[in-house]
Amino acid sequence: MSYTYAEYDAIVVGAGHAGCEAALALARLGMNTLLFTVSIDSIALMPCNPNIGGSSKGHLVREIDALGGEMGKNIDKTFIQSKMLNKSKGPAVHSLRAQADKQDYTKEMRRVMENTKGLTLRQDEVEKLLVENHCITGVLTSSGAVYPCRAVILCTGVYLKARCVYGDVSRYTGPNGLSAANHLSDSLKELGIELYRFKTGTPARIDRRSIDFSKMEEQKGDERIVPFSFTNRPEDIEREQVSCWLTYTNEETHQIIRDNLDRSPLYSGNIQGTGPRYCPSIEDKVVRFADKNRHQVFIEPEGNNTNEMYIGGMSSSLPEDVQFRMYRSVPGLENANIVRNAYAIEYDCINATQLKPSLEFKGISGLFSAGQFNGSSGYEEAAAQGLIAGINAARKLQNKEPLILDRSEAYIGVLIDDLVTKETHEPYRMMTSRAEYRLILRQDNADLRLTKKGYEIGLIDEARYQKLLQKEQDILEEIDRLQNTNIGASGRVQEILKSFGSTPLNTGTSLAELIRRPELSYEAVELIDKDRKPLSPEVIEQVNINLKYEGYIKRQLKQVEQFKKMEKKRIPDDLNYDDVYSLRIEARQKLKQIRPHSVGQASRISGVSPADISVLLVYLEQLRYGK
Amino acid sequence: MKTDTIAAISTAMNNAGISIVRMSGADAVSIADRLYHSPGNNKKLKDQNSHTVHYGYIYDGEQMIDEVIVLVMKAPNSYTCEDVVEIDCHGGVIVTKKILNLLIKNGARPAEPGEFTKRAFLNGRIDLSQAEAVIDIINAKNDMALKSSVSQLKGNVMEKIKEIRGNIIRDVAFIEAALDDPEHIEIDGFGEELLERVNDNERDILKLLASFDNGRILKEGIKTVIVGKPNAGKSSLLNTLLGEERAIVTEIEGTTRDTLEESIYLGDIMLNLVDTAGIRNTGDFVESLGVEKAIKSARDADLIIYVVDGTRNLDENDREIISLIKDKKTIVLLNKIDAPSLISKKETEEAVKKPVIEISAKKALGLEKLEKEIKDMFFHGEITFNDEIYITNIRHKTALSEARDSLSQVRKSIEDNMPEDFYSIDLMDAYEALGRIIGESVGEDLVNTIFSEFCMGK
Asked: Fewer CB within 10 Å, N side or C side of chain A?
């Protein structure tokens, strides 16, 4: 017997990284919000790698923060090592990554959630979505309670019909033995939602005391750290950092794996889900890259209050006895004691082309989804979608236009556009190479790109917004000053230039021109620049980047202009593609299925050729002139 | 919105032995059936299999127009992917036009230029570069150009471009893999290695670009301007080349008041010849307009033929011409070798610093040397067409130029010690530009290459 328990504006299903951001955004935007999780103790759990950020994922976290999300602040509170990757490369690919204390991360996020006004946490399993006339009306839980609501965000992660597998051991649970959600998939299918089955995996955890670190290379954190959150200064979050360790597999490891491939469920067919190519299991690596005689293995602490170490690079679903020998063949791990086995996990997720760019289902009004459920992978990708789904569910309830970031505005825009446009047949991971305009989408300028939007949405407070405006103004004024300050070719100037190995001046030039020289910088020309006002390091960073890479940035801005033209060409929601006669069959099918909202989006659908786009443009023109 | 049926005469409009009228569209077969009579008048084209040939007659009502062969090709296995009917008739401009008119009277519409090809393209039958090569075939003005278009259809250009793109995407994939996974993949020092490949790719692109000139020249001819001081024998040369009296030749200086244009074949090279007024300081207003035009034509020309009068000394008019042609591809002809000369070949060469060929325009002496010189100049000594790759299309050229510029930018970035991520920006631009030639977009190419070539991951 079911009964009505309580009514909410919005309900979030799942309390992982997507669910937390979604629920916080909803509650902070004034929605009376309920969050369901199968385990209150597992809020913002990190069941795989113990870090946040990394290449392009770091960009996502900074964007989440710039829009008013929580992930950046939470990792700043709980990191135990921080590193800026690619520091010797261009600013577009600088990527922040922090090792997290997993338990602290969970604890701190839970603290925030529990103390957010308008947000209620509830431990229960949602079994069924209640839908009337293609509109969401509520959910039904395993206890038989009905919760009426006007919006639902599904953030079920890897828990739908989850199955953990290694060797011939197979358990129908989520990560760490947490209970799977076994009923919701059926409810989704009944609603006509197309499901995929994906898989991913995680390596073993090993007891720190059983590891011989003398055989490994130490990997330390950065001395000068950069916070994820734009609200923090480095000095606010400085702390003692722990090290990670690097070792390698060898021929013996590979031989053990090759000898036992037939016992891997991936090869025996016991696992059918599609795994990610970018995060292959060690057995995949050995098979696919047979010419490599070693693979890197990173030993990363799971936290300050545990001896568990994460064995990065060696995820596996081989049987326990093979795992035991395999790990022990690695230098430094000869006596390793495994605390948790490596395993693969299979789960239900959706074909995300069923979603609009707002992350609302095309067929069911008020139903949103985010995170691994949408076919992505990674904590950061999940959080980014959770935030956008939360914002858009709230805006829907407030009768406002959804927030849609495009590919020239944010990595989040690239992520969501890819998910809802290109059918991904493997878990989707963010990469800087997916961002066409990455020189503009830097991690250092996420606030300049997005905080204004966050303010307009209502997730950024007045003080933070004013600070941003001030920063913006400081940058513009300083660049202007440098461009208009001329430096003569005096002996003193030549001396200073010489000291930096820079060619002397023939005639006078502007300070900006000098800063553009590869061997110079804003800091380097200090002695030549008499009228310099004290500015914050963040402002100086922007001045440097904008001057030094001006040519490239201008070129990308030009490309963005072109791109925006196609994005602005909207396609009517009710367009009948059967009327567009000359489309090729494949293109017609894809367009009918995905129903892109702009010609720009249409052009990114695989199977839609430039010729199809010409045909579509011609048709839209004809429509416009009433045929 | 269904496409209508189009018709056109697809052979040249002249009194050739056979002409072909072609029709494409959903009604092509039924329209043909209204006009076609088989010998026993008992056959309907709509009942015939695709790709069959039928002998018979075209009738206009009761009146027989021509004896014909009709080819039936049904959708989608035709050039346009639509129903196509071809009527091979016995030529003659009047008969052919009459048949076309009958088709139109019965429901077809005259095709726009290139519309068959456009349909083939829109229906996914051919890619952009093939479509454009087909249009080039239609427009090909001489045998060489035809050969070039055909070889492009065979995919020579495509293969070369695919090869260059393959090289580029692998390099980008490596850079991106390393940036994505800096702790797994070492990239320091990659610039040097990359520089070599960038140079190789750039060389290949430059080769294709160089062939563009050839390609255009094959198709459109070499725009050739004949200059020289008055009465040096320019018009005589033109007439000799044309084999007819085209320009007025007199002994009075300044006879040619305007520029004349004519296409001629010198061997198998097409020259678009522009004869010009003699260049001299003149008080005659009409003539001075001609002189101005001559100077302008010379500036736009692919080739200048400078005719020097061997029976007169070089004067200030010659000097003006010499300065005008300084930076142009020029062949200098020392004319009137049949008459007693005042200046030698050597003297002329010293004055103009260009190759000099002795001719007599009047007696047609030395023309074969002129032909050889032009070939050497424009075809880099090579004139074998089947093994060479040609770019014949301005769009291709633009894309190639963009790709080359992008690669130059990569080289500059490497030389300036810019970080590796900047290389991939320009490499991807080059990749994208080259893709436009063969009608391929970037899509998931990069991500797929990264995953297939490099071992990534946690």
From this structure: N
CB A25 within 8 Å of CB A47: no
The CA-based angle B34-B37-B41, given to 5 degrees, is 115
**Cβ pair A175, A347 in contact under 8 A:** no
CA atoms within 13 A on the CB side of B245: 3
Inter-chain touch A279–B128, beta carbons under 8 Å = no
* pLDDT over 80 (residue A45): yes
From A88, A296, A315, residue closest to B183, measured CB to CB: A296
pTM: 0.74
Q: Which architecture characterizes domain A3-199+347-457 according to CATH?
A: 3-Layer(bba) Sandwich (3.50)
Q: What strand order describes the sheet that includes A151-154? A: A119-123, A33-37, A10-13, A151-154, A367-369
pLDDT digits (tens, 9 = 90+) for A300-325: 999 999 999 999 999 999 999 999 99
Name the residue among B431, B421, B263, B237 with its Cα closest to residue B336.
Answer: B237
Residue type, B174: F
| Class for the domain spanning A205-344 | mainly beta
Nearest one of B391, B424, B18 to B210, comparing CA atoms = B391
> Position B435: which residue type?
G
| Overall average pLDDT of the A11-25 stretch | 98
Q: Give the A window 233-292 contacts with B, CB below 8 Å.
A: 246, 277-280, 285, 288-289, 292
Q: Which residues on B lie below 8 Å from A94 (Cβ)?
A: none
Beta-carbon count within 10 A of B375 CB:
17
Segment A273-280 shows an average pLDDT of 75
- Give the burial class of B245: count Cβ atoms within 10 A of its Cβ; 0-12 exposed, 13-18 middle, 19 or more buried: exposed
Task: Tell me yes or no: is domain A462-553 CATH 1.10.10.1800.
Answer: yes
Q: Counting every residue, how long is chain B?
A: 458
Closest CA to B214 of B134, B150, B302, B299: B302
B180 neighbourhood in chain A, CB within 8 Å: 55-56, 431-433
Q: Which of B128, B172, B421 sits opposite A92 (nearest CB)?
A: B421
For chain B, list residues whose CB is within 8 angstroms of any CB belonging to chain A: 1-3, 121-124, 128, 172, 176, 179-184, 188, 416-422, 424-425, 439, 441, 443-444, 446-447, 450-452, 455-458
Distances (CA, A) of B130 to B134, B153, B391: 6, 5, 12
What span, in angstroms and rounded, lies between the C-alpha atoms of B413 and B417?
6
B338-367 tens-digit pLDDT: 888 888 888 888 888 888 899 988 888 888
How far apart (Å, rounded) are the C-alpha atoms in residues A588 and A586? 5
Contact A154, A361 (CB under 8 A): no
Fold annotation for B153-214+391-453: Four Helix Bundle (Hemerythrin (Met), subunit A) (1.20.120)
